[in-house]
Amino acid sequence: MRTAPDAGHWEVVVETPDQAEVRTRVRRLRKAGVDGPLIRLDTLCGRLALPTTCQLSLLVTAAERKAR
User: Fold this and answer.
1) Staple partner for 15: which of 55, 58, 59, 62, CB 3.0–4.6 Å?
2) What is the pTM of this model?
């Protein structure tokens, strides 16, 4: 399975408090043909000191890592 723990690692694409930017980035990835399971969205709760941010990550497989 390509999303198995040993298949690759998650690389952060963007971290921002702007949810509209995250949605735009996800749309662009999907339009470029990136499958949903290869995209990860995390919400990082800031509490009082920092604003809540969204982190968009993309799975980079071992094969893609070698190609770089």
Assistant:
1) 55
2) 0.77
SS3 of residue 61 by DSSP: strand
Judge whether 56 and 17 are in contact, CB under 8 Å.
no
> What is the distance between the alpha carbons of residues 68 and 37, in angstroms, rounded to a whole number?
22
The Cα 43–Cα 52 span in angstroms is 7
Domain limits of the chain?
A: 8-67
- In the chain, what are the helix, strand and coil shares in percent, each to the nearest 5? 30, 35, 30
Q: How far apart are CA 12 and CA 46, in angstroms?
A: 18
What one-letter code names the amino acid at 45?
Answer: C
